[in-house]
Design goal:
The protein is an alpha+beta fold. It is 28% helix and 27% strand. It is built from seven helices and 14 strands. Strands 1, 2, 3, 4, 5, 6, 7, 10, 11 and 12 form a ten-stranded antiparallel sheet that branches. A hairpin with a 5-residue loop joins strand 11 and strand 12. It is globular and about 60 Å long.
C-alpha cells in the first residue's frame, strides 16, 4: 500500500478499513467529456447514464476528502447527491462502491484525489484517462475463450470521465464475476506476500505449506510460469507488452486451497 501523508484524514485511510458515503454531482450529458468502451455492462451503463426531469446527465463522483476544496464546482452543478457507499482498497482513491439502497451490484471506481500521497499527486489526468480507455479497448478485443485458455481475467475499465473545468477525472472498473464466488479468493499480488496486520505469516507462505510440493516448485509452477506464459502471449500474439507489478496483478485462489 502507498504511504499516506499525516495530513490525510484517518477516516479515509485504507489501513483503518474505512467505509464512507460517496457523493456525486450531476454533469449534463452535453457538457460531459467521457469515453464508454464496448465492454460496459448494461447495468453499469444505466448507473453512469441517467435522466432527471427529462435531462440526461452523468454522475461525477467525488472523493469525500475533495468535497470541501470543490465547493464552487459542486454549486455550479446543483449540489452533491449521495447514493453509494465506498471503501478504499490498496490506495485511498481506489475504491469498491455499492448502492446504499442495498443493490448487490458493486463496482470499482478509481477516483481523483487532489492531494499528494506517497510523493505523487493522486489524480487521473487526461492522459491517464486516455491510456485507460485505449488499454481497456485492446483487452476487450481478446475473445473470452482466449482469456480462459490463458487462465487470465482482466478488470475492465470501460468508462472514463473528465470533470468539466477540472484537469482530472474518474475511471470505472468492472469487478470480475469470480470475485462474487464464495469459493474463490481474489488476492492482489502484494497482499499475498505481505504479513497480516497481526504479524502472521503471508498468505503465500500458507499456500506453499498446503501445496506439499516445496517452495521452489510452487513459485516456479504456480506463479512464475503462468505469469511469464501469459505475458509472452499478450506481447507476441496481441501486441500488448505488459509492465507488471504486484499491485496490478492478482491471484485467483480456491478458498479451500
Amino acid at each position: 500500500p502507498v504511504a499516506v501523508s499525516d495530513s490525510f484524514p484517518q477516516e479515509f485511510n485504507p489501513k483503518d478499513g474505512a467505509t464512507y458515503a460517496l457523493g456525486y454531482v450531476r454533469v449534463p450529458l452535453h457538457e460531459a467529456e467521457f469515453f464508454m468502451g464496448p465492454n460496459m455492462p448494461p447495468w453499469a451503463r444505466q448507473l453512469m447514464m441517467r435522466s432527471r426531469m427529462g435531462q440526461r446527465f452523468i454522475p461525477f463522483y467525488l472523493h469525500p476528502d475533495s468535497v470541501e476544496r470543490l465547493q464552487r464546482f459542486i454549486r455550479r452543478h446543483g449540489g452533491i447527491h449521495y447514493d453509494r457507499n465506498a471503501f478504499p482498497t490498496s490506495s485511498p482513491r481506489s475504491t469498491v462502491t455499492w448502492n446504499r439502497s442495498g443493490s448487490p451490484r458493486a463496482l470499482a471506481q478509481k477516483l481523483s484525489l487532489d492531494q499528494e500521497i506517497g510523493g505523487l499527486r493522486r489524480i487521473n489526468d487526461r492522459n491517464t484517462l486516455i491510456r485507460s480507455a485505449v488499454t481497456n479497448h485492446a483487452f476487450a478485443l481478446i475473445p473470452e475463450a482466449e482469456q480462459r485458455r490463458m487462465h487470465m481475467r482482466f478488470m475492465a475499465e470501460p468508462f472514463q470521465i473528465l470533470g468539466p473545468g477540472l484537469d482530472y477525472g474518474n475511471i470505472v472498473r468492472i469487478l470480475p464475476e469470480e470475485i462474487t464466488n464464495e469459493h474463490l479468493l481474489v488476492v492482489a499480488g502484494f497482499a499475498s506476500a505481505s504479513k497480516f496486520p497481526d504479524g502472521g505469516a503471508p498468505l503465500l507462505v500458507d499456500m506453499i505449506a498446503r501445496s506439499g510440493i516445496g517452495a521452489r516448485k510452487f513459485i516456479r509452477d504456480k506463479h512464475l510460469r503462468p505469469l511469464v506464459r501469459a505475458h509472452l502471449e499478450l506481447a507476441f500474439r496481441y501486441g500488448l507488452p505488459g509492465a507488471n507489478h504486484s499491485q496490478n496483478a492478482g491471484h485467483l485462489i480456491h478458498a479451500s486451497s
